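Researcher: Structure for this, please.
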Amino acid sequence: MKKISVGIIGFGTVGTGVATILKKNAALLRQRLGATIELKRIADLDIQRDRGVALKPGVLTSDANEIINDPDIDIVVELIGGTNAAKKMTLQAVKNGKHVVTANKALLSKHGHELFSAAAENGVDIAFEASVGGGIPIIRTIQEGLASDRILSFFGILNGTANYILSRMTDEGGDFQDILKDAQEEGYAEADPTFDVEGIDTMHKLCVLIGLAFGKKVSEKKIYTEGISKITPLDIEFARELGYRIKLLAICRGSEKGVDARIHPTLIPEGHLLAQVNNTLNAVFLQSEDLGPTMLYGHGAGMMPTGSAVVADIVSLSRDIVKNTANRVPYLPVNGKKKAGEIAIKPIKEIEARYYLRFSAIDKPGILSQISGILGRNNISIYSVVQKGRRMRGGSVPIFMLVHESKESDIQKALKQIDRLSILRQKTMLIRIEEGL
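Model: Predicted structure, token format:
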């Protein structure tokens, strides 16, 4: 029986999950594959800490080059994160004729096209199911399940930390900072949570999905990215009163003029499936031309869910090795000889949407007339207004407003003028609304 050797670089949470699954399910994988997968080496800077996985003597090493340059290793699994060292190791492994599995969305977002081109030139593959949505098989769904279809749009909840915080703020109340602290103590958030709560992690994942869906390169700089750190219990409460839930949403809509792609807090109707995705769970809601709506839902992170996706990639590559084939499924859904250009991303100022606005104003006559006057002069029509009697810090009262579909550039121009009014005590809060998911 053919033996396929695997080396893992990075023995953290996901690496431990991969090693556990390969060991636990060895007989099952051998039965399904018709070959044996051998975990030959694991490289990590810390090879002393007990991960709870029994390994043969000599498997652990602190030198990743012992994996990358080992002629007997067929598949290298990169799980160190970051971009610089990961890129160097991946390129070297590919040049050495090894297939690579990675869960590194930042690496693929920044350098994916270079890496996949190098893999094609060297007759090997890079698999990356675990890079987006953890254990959710969204990559394989787009690459293979929808290979005959045209993707029109997709909307994703792609960060478990942000979703956990918003879910608890919605269901239990509480401030962002307090719940973030709880999330850190419970291991759902990093000591530095910036990538998660400010939308950067979601942006990397969105870039990967856009490339797969539309077959072109994506510039991270052109993706509007806004996080959840400014969301308050007042916003959560009023959204619920209106029949919405607030989610950090990755949005992508294709059109002939380019792609509307952005990440920001979004009011979603509470009856929509995405509004029911809570805590650390992830989901992607797809609309395609022939199939119509599809949603994939599940654990977007964690040792075993993400480890499961990595092992699925190892098995897929092993099948290709057994059949002596490579590059069967191209990274982009275009002919490999055709160079992929950069996709046109619609600037945020050009989008049109409905908006939720919250003003913190002095409680005195004439407030609404001043605000509505500025909005009207900027082509913005008011749908509804609610003024709460509850006073905020500094003696101001909150005014909540929904406006009809408007152009983003008009909204931003109006808010600059409104925020200069002496009657306001804080900068206006703006949250975009998505009705037509």
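Researcher: Any notable elements?
Model: The longest strand covers residues 244-255. The longest helix spans residues 303-322.
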